## 1
Amino acid sequence: MQLTGHITPDSLMSLEAYSKWRKTHKGEVIAHRQLRSVALGEHLNVQFESELTIRYQTQEMLRIEKIFEEEGIQQEIEAYAPLVPDGHNWKATVLIEYTDINERKRELARLIGVEDRLFVEVEGYDRVYAIADEDLDRENEEKTSAVHFVRFEFTPAMRASVRAGAAVKLGCDHTHYPVHQQIRPETLASLAGDLR
């Protein structure tokens, strides 16, 4: 899978080529996703996206849905491409995970607004709060969704500090889910590569 900086129909593999590529490279993509995932407490999983993860997701959807016509391919690109970081931000899929269905229902009601209380704190700078669910609202008066899409926007000085090795915390200051932690060095090294 060749990273080009921009996902277009021409930069995607055919279904046949992707099927062959997938057999030998799926494990690499899974390892990349795991490297870029941060468990925030016991029930929030923040998966930082990259061109590789989104290109893979797009190719997977085309494969699963057997989409090969140009219009369908373009629709999948438009659905996923906004999740690719663009040099001055990090973008992530946030999963709220509870295995017990009754506990999940109760906690999704208690955690309304949790996506807006996620933050990244670069050493020496103020917290940057998530901009959440820009594509559509994922909660109502009764509960939040178990999946959110968020973006963290950084100033040029913050980006330079991260690239220079500053420590970075990921956290949440929602009343019912207060947690924060340092991002592991190996994860931070991968995320720093997203910033220009």
Note: Helices lie at 15-35, 51-65, 70-80, 101-110, 156-163, 185-192.
## 2
Amino acid sequence: MTAARLIGTVCGVGYLRPAPGTWGSLAALPLAWVLHTLGGFPLLVIATIAVFFGGLWATKVMTAGQDDHDPSEIVIDEVAGQFIALWAISYPSWAHGIEITALWPGWIAGFLLFRLFDITKPGPVGWADRKGDAIGVMLDDVIAGVFAGIGVLILAGISHGVLGL
């Protein structure tokens, strides 16, 4: 397996069926936990940036000369987006010394919201997906991750009464 295929498929996770994107998102969860445990929010951010650029390169290599700009086995984009969705729990955990596993509702919400936005592709998520190139493949999941992270923050605000609801 080439380096691009290893990165793009997240060590073969992208070949799991059905729903390889969901498997890629699930694979991101323990990776995010390890990164957060080792280096907190800063390490998760650095890893997200590395995953984005590594995924961009791998996607360009894997789709070169092909009509399909976003084959289902490429799931590194889901890892980047899922990491971003989890920033919403990683930062408060790191900043306030809270064990990240104590924020388990945020893990579930982040996963479900990310999958919802990645599958339904509302607004700018769909715009990025329609770009038809490697940057679009990565960017639609980044935007979906941002939407999911905002959703996690809103749900946490409601849950903790911060929003006055």
Note: DSSP finds six helices and no strands in the chain.
## 3
Amino acid sequence: MAQAVFFVGVLVAVLALTLTQQLFIWAVSSLALVAIWFLGIKPRMGDKTTGGLSREAVLGAVGQVIEAPKGERRGKLRFSVPVLGTDEWPCLAQEGEAVEVGDRVQVMAILGNALVVRSVKGGET
């Protein structure tokens, strides 16, 4: 690791270290930096979106209509947590469904790059 080499280089500039001491310090500092990475930094960098998951991961997701679809004109749907990399999606109402701005809707299908949705009634999900 470059940071461990830099650390050893700084110590060599300040102290007179033998090659064995330099290698030991490099090994210990490398292990410490790897442990810090895997135990402290990497767990906090987790991806909290569903980006990269299959399209089927979207089916059943519940969002809110922010622009109502009218006939063939697409509306816009917003999810509280990004789905497949974005929190806003174009949407179409399922045949026979009427959805308005502010309605909670559930994704029933994917049609091209638009989500086909139906209204969610009460506590139903």
Note: The mean pLDDT is 84.
